[in-house]
Amino acid sequence: MVFINLSQESEQNMSIVLDFLNILDKDATVLRAYKLDGKGMMSKFGLNAEEQQAVLSGSKEKVAALLGISADGLPSVHVNGTYADDTPGESRLSESRMNESKQQTVAAQQIASN
Amino acid sequence: MTIEKQGRLICVGTGMRMAGQLTPIAQSYIETADVVIAAVANPFTRKWLQDISQEYICLLNHYSACDEEGKNRRDTYRRMADTILSEVRAGKTVCAAFYGHPGIFACISHMAIADARAEGFQAEMLPGISAEDCLVADLGIDPGRTGMQAMETTQFMIYERKIDPTALLILWQPGLAGELSLKRFDTTPAKLQILVDKLARDYPLDHPVILYEAATHPLEQTRIDTILLRDLPSAFLQQITTLVIPAAYPLKVEQAIIDELNALSETVIALEQAA
Questions:
Q1: CA distance A67 to B49
Q2: Taking CB atoms and an 8 Å limit, are A75 and B239 in contact across chains?
Q3: A55 to chain B nearest CA, in Å?
Q4: pLDDT: is B127 or A58 the higher one?
Q5: Cα–Cα distances in Å, from B251 out to B161, B166, B200?
Q6: Model ipTM value
């Protein structure tokens, strides 16, 4: 994961972008205004041209770059113990791997003895 | 006299998106807790939570340990719960934040709460908006209409489950279908074919199924792709993809039960009239 060093001014800007995304996500009036006039809404909010372009592109990578973070999502796997706690499949897998390992050992011993 | 220990644990859900799906009480705990320990996949939400919390620890970094020899997701979950508990034991108010609902497909929160309570600490869970909630809204599905079955895909594959094809079936994480090592985060067409073969016991191969992905921020589009069941092995699946299988057949009336219930009603009416 790559993190970008930012100046104080950049940090303020990225805060504006993040605030704007959050407002879009929770304020019905802003969301409606954004859908009618995206550029106008972002200008009112104080986003500069580069930030507006990134938001309008809908690109997670471009917005993440403005925020100084990686766009790579961390694993969004459900942290799920429903089969991890008791996995017969894994047991079977382990057993087959053990058998495979035993066979390899036997084969290696045969080669050695020859 | 019981001496209450100082540490405290509150598990909250952040919803699937950003501020719009975070409940006011969850946000309040995130802002005021001594430390926020979070499993939030969306980088924008994660950045925001980092900014508003006093101290932020990212639990998902533990997944990198899955690359280590001999470590799998089961070990990772235990370490995540231990990370939470160590902060509680240090006497801190700990807010553990999980995307979606903190108690749905989130064994760590349940483990941490059980451990904390067993050690005499206060621990509670607050609900959040889950992937299932978003799915119901986005697909316009009412789980009450035919009933709903929901389970993790690999669990469905490796256990003997009785599926009712007259009800909705939701399979979570088909993007990890048949992944038994608990070390990888993907699947293969061959594993998906095994899933299709098992589903074909109850559904026709030409049954339409939906690949669903909830939007995780305001700039993202929700994915709703309808494909045929037989085409699943070649479909594009991500970790966040959910497989939604609508009912294939109409509900069948069980007349014998209706007759038994009617007989009960008639008995009650007869008794009332006799009285």
A1: 13
A2: yes
A3: 7
A4: B127
A5: 19, 5, 19
A6: 0.78
Residues of B in contact with A60 (CB under 8 A): 43, 217, 219-220
CA distance B46 to B132: 21
pLDDT tens, position by position, B238-248: 989 999 999 99
* DSSP code at position A77: -
Neighbours of A14 (CB within 10 A): 22
Tokens of A67: 């925020």
Q: State both tokens at A104.
A: 């390899």
pLDDT in tens, A29-71: 999 999 999 999 999 999 999 999 999 998 888 999 988 888 7
Residue A88 forms contact with B (CB below 8 Å): yes
Q: Given CB atoms, is A91 within the 8 Å cutoff of chain B? A: no
Find the catalytic residue in B63, B77, B78, B230: B77
B contacts of A70 (beta carbons < 8 Å): 43
Residues 6+ apart with CB under 8 A from B78: B111
Cβ separation A80–B180 shorter than 8 A: no
Bridge partners (DSSP) listed for residue B150: B170
Contact A1/B at CB under 8 A: no
Q: What is the pTM (predicted TM-score) of this model?
A: 0.81
